[in-house]
């Protein structure tokens, strides 16, 4: 007898709904209403994406703060959160060029404050305001952090994805970001309206 069998069907439905809502709130399940699809983030890459989102939202300025953000987020998903595990996440963020560390200080892409940085995208974006460059870099970092097969495949899905990850930005800004990605050849729209990523 399973744990649910002792409940009647109405109670079972209620339990399923509560668990489902909890997974959505935690970000482990995402409901794409446009395409009427569910996407799951229950594997290690999915959890890593959620931790990356939290890191980009919190923008801890020092390593101790970053350690705490990662530790708490891993714990909230019942993941191992030892210092070794936290170090693995930090190394992943560095490898993906989402963060850079200078002693205790943490810098976030596009690394305008890090001495000697001359990344191409930073140079391209110098003509724009610092805020808009930062938003563009955050958008690129979000897409880079996702495995190629799980990136949005249509322009409308990409817009929705960016809206959900760049919550403070309005629709006009999101549209500009997508146009900028197309003009910078970060994404290419195929004949079948599918997106091809060049990152």
Q: Low-confidence segments, ≥5 residues, pLDDT <50?
A: 115-129
Tell me the helix content: 40-55%
Count of helix runs: 8
Main pleated-sheet profile:
2 strands, antiparallel
Strand tally, please?
A: 6
Q: CA-to-CA gap between the ends? A: 50 Å
Broad structural category? mainly alpha
Order of helices and strands: HEEHHHEEHHHHEE
How confident overall, as mean pLDDT? 77
Shape call: flat
Oligomer: single chain
Percent strand equals: 5-15%
Strand order of the largest sheet: 1-2
Rg (C-alpha, Å): 19 Å
Topology of helices and strands:
Elements (H helix, E strand, L loop, with lengths): L8 H18 L2 E4 L4 E4 L3 H15 L4 H14 L6 H13 L3 E4 L2 E4 L11 H6 L4 H15 L10 H11 L5 H13 L3 E3 L5 E3 L2
Antiparallel strand pairs: 1-2, 3-4, 5-6
Helix pairs in contact: 2-3, 7-8
Q: How would you describe this structure to a colleague?
A:
- It is a single chain.
- Helix 2 (44-58) crosses helix 3 (63-76).
- Mean pLDDT is 77; it is low at 115-129.
- The chain is flat.
- Helix content is 53%, strand content 11%.
- The protein has a two-stranded antiparallel sheet. The protein has a two-stranded antiparallel sheet with strand order 3-4. Strands 5-6 form a two-stranded antiparallel sheet.
- The chain has helices at residues 9-26, 44-58, 63-76, 83-95, 120-125, 130-144, 155-165, 171-183; strands at 29-32, 37-40, 99-102, 105-108, 187-189, 195-197.
- A hairpin with a 5-residue loop joins strand 5 (187-189) and strand 6.
- With 199 residues, it is mainly alpha-helical.
- The protein has eight helices and six strands, in the order αββαααββααααββ.
